[in-house]
Design brief:
This protein has about 140 residues and is α+β, with helices and mostly antiparallel strands. The chain is built from seven helices and four strands. Helix 3 packs across helix 4. The longest helix is centred in the last third of the chain and has 11 residues. The radius of gyration is 14 Å and the shape is globular. Bound molecules: uridine-5'-diphosphate and magnesium ion. Uridine-5'-diphosphate binds next to loops.
């Protein structure tokens, strides 16, 4: 099924100047960019994005991290985009991620793990609408 998913290149990776390299891995993996922008989230915006994690012990630290510097947010489209993107990203913890995945190659820690990708069609719908209007996605 052709799906859309929301990807964020997190502040750690933007700081390292590896935006192009990360996008290239998704493109080589068969994903197409349907929308893209570079923004600097406020703490409140980061909290809203990660609202599903509001009761987790890492919520405060995660939302501080996500608002510490610019991020690149994009909508990627392709066959089974949600699971394909998560495969290319690798496991949440870079030390447990498979060789050749983005998180294994560029992640610094379980928090500073370079990229975000939606985990389901429900979260993709919420996350895409959080950053992009209908007219910006094509
Ligand atoms: N995270 C963290 N500590 C944890 C688990 C997650 O700091 O123990 C951060 C990490 O940046 C992760 C994000 O919170 O990417 C969202 O967590 P989730 O479990 O949804 O992982 P993901 O879907 O990003 O793989
Ligand atoms: Mg998640």
């Amino acid at each position: 099924m052709i799906e859309r998913t929301l990807v964020i290149i997190k502040p750690d990776a933007v700081k390292k100047n590896i935006v192009g390299e990360i996008i290239s891995r998704f493109e080589k993996g068969g994903l197409r960019i349907a929308a893209l922008k570079r923004i600097h989230l406020t703490k409140e915006q980061a909290k809203g994005f990660y609202i599903v994690h509001k009761d987790k012990p890492f919520y405060e630290s995660l939302t501080n991290f996500m608002s510490e510097g610019p991020v690149v947010v994009m909508v990627l489209e392709g066959k089974n985009a949600i699971s394909e993107v998560r495969k290319i990203m690798g496991a949440t913890n870079p030390s447990e991620a498979e060789k050749g995945t983005i998180r294994r190659d560029f992640g610094e820690s379980i928090e500073r793990n370079a990229v975000h990708g939606s985990d389901s069609s429900e979260s993709a719908a919420y996350e895409i609408a959080y950053f992009f209007s209908f007219l910006e996605i094509f």
